[in-house]
Structures are given as C-alpha cells and as structure tokens.
Design brief:
Length: 166
C-alpha cells in the first residue's frame, strides 16, 4: 500500500499568518463599523427618474440635429487646381526644352554595345539599319590587325563546320 494516502498525512498544507487570531477581533469590529457608516453612499437619484427616463431618451433620439457640413474638396476647387497644374507643366515644357539633341556622338560606345548585346540584335537587323552612305564610311576606316590575332579570333570564335563550308 501507499504511505502517501490522505489517512497518513499529518500536515494539512494550510498556514495561518502570524498573530492572526490575536488581531482578529479588532479587524472584525472595524469592518462592522465601516459597513454601518457606509450604508449611505452620498448619491441620490431624483424622484421619478427611472419612470421618465424612457421618454427623455426617445425625445433625444427623435431630434434630428444635422450639423452643417462644409466640403473640403469641391469640383470647382479641383478644376482650378488641375488647370493651374496643367498650365505650369505646359509652361515648363515650352520654355525649358532641352537645347541639345541626342546624337550617336553623345552616347558612349559601351552603352551602345551593351544595348545591342542585351537586345539580341542579329547581323541582318543591323544591316537593315545601315544605308549605303554608312557603308561607305566603314570603307574609309583603316583597321590594323595582326595576322596572328585574326587567326586566334577565328579559331576561338568559329566552329569547324563554318570554316569548311566557306
């Protein structure tokens, strides 16, 4: 059998604060005096207040006091604001236009190369953009390449089938 049953317990587990029973009479008497003196709360309800409460509430609800509303944004104010904004934009566009036009000379070569690489331009696309005058300009450019660098480029960037077929 277990020795931890309720029949074998000697302690209840409850503790009484020190000097509790010595001060108990004084505490009980002070509580009783407090209850006797606090019967009157000091608050009074007017006579027939609860009988007339319903009528007062319904009268207050029936009154339709709508406050005067002043709109912050009206169509008239909005149209004035949009007209002013449109005229300012038009004025800036007319008077402060960019004098320098964009040409190929102003664009960096690296930017053009990156654009062509990223847009997957084919040689046929490029050829359709060039005119005869542009091609004549290319003929006047002298390119000085060494034979070794050209051979290295061809071997590294072309396949054997392309070389044999041509």
């Amino acid at each position: 059998m277990k020795t931890n049953s309720l029949n074998n317990m000697n302690k209840t587990g409850f503790k009484v604060p020190k000097d509790y029973f010595e001060n108990f009479e004084d505490m009980l008497l002070s509580e009783l005096k407090l209850k006797e003196t606090s019967k009157n709360t000091g608050f009074k309800v007017p006579e027939d207040y609860f009988k007339s409460l319903d009528s007062h509430i319904t009268e207050a609800v029936k009154k339709d006091n709508k406050p005067k509303v002043i709109k912050l944004f009206t169509w008239k104010k909005a149209s004035y604001a949009t007209a002013i904004a449109a005229s300012l934009i038009l004025m800036f566009n007319v008077f402060y236009t960019q004098k320098n036009t964009l040409t190929l000379d102003n664009i960096e070569t690296v930017s053009i190369e990156n654009y062509l690489l990223n847009e997957d331009f084919q040689t046929t696309d490029m050829a359709s953009l060039l005119t005869n005058e542009d091609l004549d300009d290319f003929d006047s450019i002298e390119l000085n390449f060494q034979e070794e660098s050209l051979e290295d480029y061809v071997f590294e960037n072309s396949e054997i089938e392309d070389i044999i077929s041509n």
